[in-house]
Amino acid sequence: MTSSRVITLLTDFGTADYFVAAVKGVILTINPQAYLVDITHEIPPQDIESGAFTLLTCYRDFPPGTIHLAVVDPGVGSTRRPIVVSAGSYCFVGPDNGLFSYVYDRESRRSDENPDTGGESSCQVFHVTAGEYFRQQPSPTFHGRDVFAPVAAALSNGIQPSALGPRISDEVRLAPLSPVRDETGKLHGRIIHIDRFGNCITNLTRPDLPDQKAIKLSVNGKVIEAFRQFFTDEHGSEDGVFAIWGSAGFLELAVNRGSAAHVLNAHRGDAVVLQ
User: Fold this and answer.
1) 191: Cβ contacts below 8 Å, ≥ 6 apart
2) Residue 191 contacts residue 266 (beta carbons within 8 Å)
3) Angle at CA 55, nearest 5°, toward 22 and 103?
4) pLDDT tens track for 132-181
5) How far apart (Å, rounded) are the C-alpha atoms in residues 129 and 82?
6) pLDDT for 57-93, tens place per residue?
7) In degrees rounded to 5, what are phi and psi of residue 76?
8) Disulfide engineering: 140 pairs with which of 19, 37, 77, 248, CB 3.0-4.6 Å?
9) Three-state secondary-structure class, residue 257
10) Which domains does the chain have, with CATH numbers?
């Protein structure tokens, strides 16, 4: 892991209040040369799964060594642990509440697929206990400013994750991203995100669909057999719902210029069964 001055920020703070500015101010006070990039501050309040998905879709688009500061923290001030994660070429700073679950999954799969690692996970998780890196008298309601921001800044100044606290192996994780195949051969996935256009992103990836031209999906009692290469492709279905490979690498359910979530009455977590 090389030190980096690039720090991204992902939160559910919104932009109407002072929260984001305070976090940035603390980082820049410690490292005036830090280069701050906003991923988003519009994660729905306390929505850990939404934060985990958004982080997964873009963390590897940044240069190696980037520090990702992510704060979606409904347990702030409680016994939940502050952590630093070293994963591949990146560092992550935030609460131990499952927010980095999909990063763990992605990096673990990369390790399994890379024979040079011997199958050993490239993720190392550290419980941040070195209080000297925190602001004095941290607020129990604003660890984003008083704990996570100064820790991210310290990392950008070259402090190693292992200097911040002990390594742990019982980090909190959300349900795994991988779909499950039952005894009949059906693959059971789920909707893991619904974007602002109403597209339903599933946890199905290309290896799950060796023959994408013969797909048959079931969602909330509705069958989807149409597949498109792009949104205005002519192949469709009577209700307009089709499957398409999204830019994040997952199979999405979409309606051209409409909302698949509305047509399917779909919500995050709904089952998607591949026949």
Assistant:
1) 200, 201, 202, 219, 253, 266, 267, 268, 269, 270, 272
2) yes
3) 125
4) 999 999 999 999 999 999 999 999 999 999 999 999 999 999 999 999 99
5) 8
6) 999 999 999 999 999 999 999 999 999 999 989 999 9
7) -55, 135
8) 77
9) coil
10) 6-168 (3.40.50.10790), 180-274 (2.40.30.90)
**Which residue(s) pair with 40 in the sheet?**
10
**Would you list the DSSP string of 165-192?**
S-EES-----S-SS-EE-TTS-EEEEEE
At residue 249, the 3 state secondary structure works out as coil
Looking at the DSSP bridge assignments, the partners of residue 217 are 224, 274
218-240 residues labelled b (16+ CB within 10 A) or e (exposed): ebeeeebebbbeeeeeeeeeeee
- 114 phi and psi, to 5 degrees? -105, 110
Within 8-160, where are the H helices? 19-30, 48-58, 101-113, 143, 149-156
Distance between CA 66 and CA 47 in Å, rounded?
A: 24
Find out whether 139 and 146 touch, Cβ atoms under 8 Å.
yes
How many angstroms separate the CA atoms of 259 and 255, rounded? Answer: 6
> Would you say 76 and 12 are in contact if contact means Cβ atoms under 8 Å apart?
no
User: Cα separation of 198 and 215, whole Å?
Assistant: 21
